[in-house]
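dumping this here before i forget
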Amino acid sequence: MSIPSNFRKWIAGFSALGGAMLFYPNDNNHNQSLEKQHSWITPPSFWGKWDHNWDRRHPQWLENTAVTNNETNKESHKKRSIRNKTNMKHHIILIRHGQYNTEGKTDSDQTLTNLGKEQAKAAGKRLQELELPYTLLIHSTMTRAQETAKIIEKYLKNVTVKENSILSEGLPVPPDPPINIWEPEIHVSI
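structure:
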């Protein structure tokens, strides 16, 4: 018994459609990889991820023992982690420069205004009142930041003052997560 040619075409069409329906739901990995490659919010692969143990003082990394799943080891691990917690504290205080002359065309013209000097004095007095163990004061090379640092330095005792050009205003590296408005600053070396 022969099958009519129209019926054969219908069978071939339904077979192709059924095969495509079976294949499509199982092809998700391919689509996701393409989405990740072309995503605007996916960070570049050459950038490292955030290091939660940046100061190497996290209790989990202070011990050199392997942890297993039984209850006694969980308790001993908890005791060790409490014992291994460091007592050292870091006080990192970020202070922006005081109000400055925005009419100045160059950095040397953008000095602190009288209000900016008063703001720096108030910041210095407040830091003195906190009585924290200050050891280092780092400021940028901008004129207004240098002025602010000199005023604050008068209120702090035994503080080493350093200058760092990396702290100047601007975006020296691409932000993470990336944004599409970032453009690197142009620097010419001679």
